[in-house]
Specification:
Helix content: 25-40%
Order of helices and strands: EHEHEHEEHHHEHEHEH
Number of strands: 8
Radius of gyration: 17 Å
Amino acid sequence: MKIGIIGAGHIGGTLTRRLTALGHDVAVANSRGPETLADLAAATGAHAVTPREAARGRDVVIVTIPEKSIPDLPKDLFSGVSDKTVVVDTGNYYPQRDGRIDAIEAGMPESQWVSQQLGRPVVKAFNNIRAQHLMELGRRAGDTHRVALPVAGDDPAARAVVRRLIDELGFDAVDAGGLDESWRQQPGTPVYATDLDIAGVRRALSEARRERPPELRARAGSATTAATSSTSRRESEGPRP
């Protein structure tokens, strides 16, 4: 499969390493230019490219950068990209890092906001697992210690593609429903960074409460980030549990 990864931080770098090891054709990009990814490319066989290049001619594009960096994505990132390309959002909103995003503070699920900014449907996945665990905890199917990951998105076919990738990586995938339910796997919920099995993930999703914990809300009077407009197009973060 041809996979583009936009963001080479903890999750982006880990996915680059894991997916190339599985034989996928991976193109990886960051905000600083392909030349800064030479070591990662040499170590993995991935192609170091620009974000625009990472989005083109790919079966899957994984966006894994901070919410606050969304305004920096090229406005034409997905221009001319096939509607069949599956876009994955691994991001999490941390107001202490990202500034205040009014729509999310008002209750919009983070990945719905990301989808709105990108102008593309997205599948939310890989946001609730630590990078080290994503690298080390993969197990064969049927292993009683296999960790499960939730997958949310509005297109069942796109969710199925991501679920297959998760299985290849050595994890079970739990269908978490539409993107409007993706708040159930955001920071502060029972499934976040807990390495549960299938039954545990399903239980945690059902026990989630929509209200954000106080420590994950922007402080009263805090500055609104430039990324808050619900009409402009932006991007998302690679998870930091």
